Amino acid sequence: MPWRSFRHRLATCVRFTWIDRAVNSRAPFRAMRPTPFVMGTRLMAKFIFFLLLAVVSGCGGTQNQAHEITGTVAERIAGVSRVVESNTPLPSTIADAHLIELQFGDGQLGPADFRSFVWMKVSPDDVAKWKAGMKTPPIDSPNYDAPPSQPRWWLAESTFTQLTKYDSQAFFGRHGWVVIQDDGNIYALTYTQ
């Protein structure tokens, strides 16, 4: 009977036991083992799932990037001034400045985090204006950190522990700390979370 053999092949290949019952209600229900075709499909599906999981999880992802404001003194001052003025007006003019920003992650499969190291030199007469611009009282025990390249303009850890630290939100709009020395050196570490 060609109809019975076609129905039997279809039920065996695709594992549709309900076709047996619908066509021939007297056929007993029997559990069927998956055919090699079905087993191979399941194995392939598992392989594709783990392959996609490896790709999405970022195997061989991107490395961290460093961005630095470089150029002449005037270009560096203009770059750092734009960063500070995006949150608050400058309390005074800046004589010199440096900025290094580290980026962690590429921002494609989730947000990227940033860590900025800023140094500004202002006149010692203007230090009081900068301290008055700090809207919060001094903060306790922030962690010291330095750029990976250890530039000579950055604050030494031994000096950092002896100075008063302020929250960086007032000038930079990010988490972190600001140190204002009486000689006009201002250091800031800011970061995103």
Would you kindly provide a brief summary of this structure?
It is built from seven helices and six strands; from the N terminus they run αααβαββααβαββ.
Strand order of the largest sheet: 1-2-3-6-5-4
Kindly, what is the distance between the CA atoms of the first and last residues, rounded to a whole number of angstroms?
71 Å
Quaternary status? single chain
SSE order, as H and E? HHHEHEEHHEHEE
What is the beta-strand fraction?
15-25%
The low-confidence parts are none
Number of discrete helical segments = 7
**Mean pLDDT score:** 77
Structural class: alpha+beta
Summed up, the domain count is 2
Structure overview:
This protein has two domains: 2-56, no CATH class; 65-191, no CATH class. 35% of the residues lie in helices and 20% in strands. It has helices at 2-14, 17-23, 36-56, 73-85, 127-132, 157-160, 169-172, and strands at 65-69, 96-104, 113-121, 165-167, 175-180, 185-191. Helix 1 packs antiparallel against helix 2. The longest helix has 21 residues, at 36-56. The chain is elongated, with a radius of gyration of 33 Å.
